[in-house]
Amino acid sequence: MTTAEVGLGPSFDNRSMTGPASPVIWPSLVELATASAIALAAIDEWRLGQGVTTALVAVRVIVAATLLGLIAFDGSLHRVNRTEPALTLLFGWLLWAGIASAASFGGLAALTQAGLFAVVAAGAIVAALRDGSSALARIGVFGFAGYMAAASLLVIGGALDAFNDDNRLMLASLEPNQLARLCAIAMVCGLWLVIRNEGLYAWLGAATGLVALGTVFASGSRTGLAALVVGIAVMAVHGSRRVLSVVALVMLLTLGAAAVLDVIGFGPSSVSITERLEASPDGSTTTLSGRDTLWPEVWGTSLDQPVTGHGLGTDRRLIAEHLDVGWAPQHAHNLLLHLLLTTGFVGALVLVVALSRGLWLAARWQRPLEFALLLIVVVDGISEPVIRVPSFGWLAIAGPLAVLASVRGASNGPVIDLREPDLTLT
Q1: For residues 248 and 191, what is the distance between their CA atoms, to the nearest angstrom?
Q2: pTM reported for the whole predicted model
Q3: Residues 132-176: pLDDT tens digits?
């Protein structure tokens, strides 16, 4: 049996961490289409004019249809290990989200959103079958490049402002925290390509890391910074390989230097991350930035539809129209509450179990990229919804679960222990 027959691709994680540059494997069309889909999903259409919004939605539909066609033409989706519980739970969540969305007041829009989640997940699975972790990292880096290019064009064209009222960078995202999260995910993907010495991709990964690092601090996001530190720390403590440790250590030192600059007030944001870690003396602001008043209200609203939830994509309108918390939140500001609100207790339970299974497998099999991405989701999910849209946060869930399922081989392939990879599968 060949590596292709078990869906592991020609170079699945068998390359040396410290050896010469790996041969370049050109990205598949599925990878590029998946990267384009998550980049477009990260753009907040509510901040755009009607004409630009219509064009954006049309492009999203075209990209999603193209990705779906490429997946069907590829024909390898059936090879995935359907017995792996993590992926089974992912499929189960997608099915439940579709059912819940169809039954919700969101109607066709909610059902369409569930379909987009499914298409992006399928793209990640097909890419993982081809080239495992490296394909996942490439999607993250390409998606980041696509998002930054599109956001720059929208800002230069005057379609939106790059900064919010606090002079925090948000580009084309819903808010600065969303921008910081996609930067954290992209930076970990870029760092992976650098560590693996993947030729031209390593240079792209290095450029991604530098841009992402500066963007996180310009966003003033506390959760984004925490997610970034956690992701890089996972790389730093993985194994004892010299190149891995040195590269990660340099990134951590860079983070430390950037934090010092933030403390002394150097940077574009008028409110530094360190200032936002402190409550105001008069009690007008708290370290939770109003989330302590929002979360009980979201919990109460989720109890109105406890089983199915209100449907994917309905949270923003629901919170804006039905909750009065003294400020203007645009989402639940917590992953678990977001899942309860949109997919009910059943959906929340299924995805939490899938995440837990993925973290356990990634730790057990020493999969640093997958573990780092899933851990970013957990850390960022404390105060952010992470998967409001099928974008970078969703890639950080579906991608690792897809890779971990492909590690197990196809439905009739061998179980491979990648702690000591077998280079001669026959």
Answers
A1: 8
A2: 0.82
A3: 899 999 999 999 999 999 999 999 998 888 988 778 899 998 888
